[in-house]
Sequence to fold (471 residues):
Amino acid sequence: MHITHISFECYPIAKAGGLADVVGALPKYQQNLDHTVEAIVPYYSNSFTDDAELEIIHKGSIRFGNEDKEYEVRKVVTPDLGFTVFLIYIEHLLDRKEIYDHPDNEERFLSFQLAAIHWMNTLEQLPDVVHCHDHHTGLIPFMMQYAFDYHRLNRVPSIFTIHNAQYQGQIPYDKLHYLPDFDKNHIGLLDWGNLINPLATGIKCAWRVTTVSPSYMEELQEQASGLEGLLRHEKAKCFGVLNGIDTETWNPETDPMLLKNFKVSNVVSGRKEHKNWLCTEFNLDKDLPLFSFIGRLVGEKGADLLPSIIRDTLKHMDVNILILGSGHDEVEYQLNALKEEFVGRYNAYIGYSEKLSHIIYAGTDFLLMPSRVEPCGLNQMYALRYGAIPIVRRTGGLKDTVIDIGEDGFGICHNQAIVWDVCYSIERGAKLYKDQERYRDIQKRIMKIDHSWTQSATEYMTIYKTLITQK
Ligand SMILES: Nc1ncnc2c1ncn2[C@@H]1O[C@H](COP(=O)(O)OP(=O)(O)O[C@H]2O[C@H](CO)[C@@H](O)[C@H](O)[C@H]2O)[C@@H](O)[C@H]1O
Fold:
């Protein structure tokens, strides 16, 4: 089968969060199942494109509002990513360093989708399935069905994956003229709440819709930032497929970002080296258990709870807490301010560091995920693979991947995204840490859990196959 993924992020080309991890891994695992798999991603001016060898394979032009915009398709020749990647280059618009945080994001998302579909339409051999990810690509299934110029694509099945329903990419109608001419009888498919809503459009128009865990799919029927009615209506074509992790990139035995590689048989010494390094670097106490948080400092991750969690915990308990993340200014400010209050047991790195994240997974004793909403969550699976015990709120994919130690499981779970629940879980963690025999036993068990993409890549293939027989 020939599958084309389209996404605004893809590791290691450009990563802001979990979307990149998924699009950098799922195609590789599908390719390993003997399919032809490629991804279409924007060209960013960053260290990846500085170092990569690229080949221009197509030059074209799209009508973009009142102007014609040239674009190029640049194929990644090296490094070998395990599947083919095509980068859409549009001068001044897409070729920037940062992925998001631009005032003209709407134009960036639109131009990327327009160039991607324009190029696909020129191909002699069309893909068997087009797989779009998140709102940045949500208009593609619509254009494939109803844009006159892309009539040829309307028999190609499209699948749309929601990685996070909170971000919907709404666009005002005064930008409608950027879209190619389409059958106006179907204009309603673009609309949600009097705005063009690419996430809603993707849900309405794709042949199948998936989210990244079964529990999140269920939750979306009740709470989907305004789209719950739509998701209930489209329920028959919606599926929850649990994300996997790339066990080649995330392998403590080979991970080049670690200070020392380790496996189950030498986990104690391997992890000790990383914990010691973290404690020295961040002035923490290496004899106390270490609880860490890695992620975007936003409400859905429960990041606003962190300052109170840190204060309440460190006032009553002898543990360390370390934070790696960036996001809301107020949360960043509070997390920085707390450093002076708890010198020697708390610290934070406000920013983004891929390398530090790997070292934290390898050195922290527990990983905190107090998420309010977690479509899947990858951090808990990275933590498990590296031997850190996850402390999670039972929501979305966290509920699907972590079982509490009280239920013969391997993690610590609580029900509510409130400070008290998280503090109580930390207390349970500290108690478990004191029982080193039990702690080590769990650690060895979690490192052997298979969360690789193999199973889920096969599930996606099964979904694609039903579409191909339907066309
Ligand atoms: N400051 C920082 N420095 C270094 N690394 C950092 C970092 N902040 C985050 N990361 C990394 O970014 C990734 C985050 O992945 P998640 O799945 O938790 O989150 P995200 O909310 O972005 O993704 C959305 O999409 C994914 C993929 O479908 C879903 O799992 C998830 O629930 C959904 O919210 C991990 O690789 C993590 O290590």
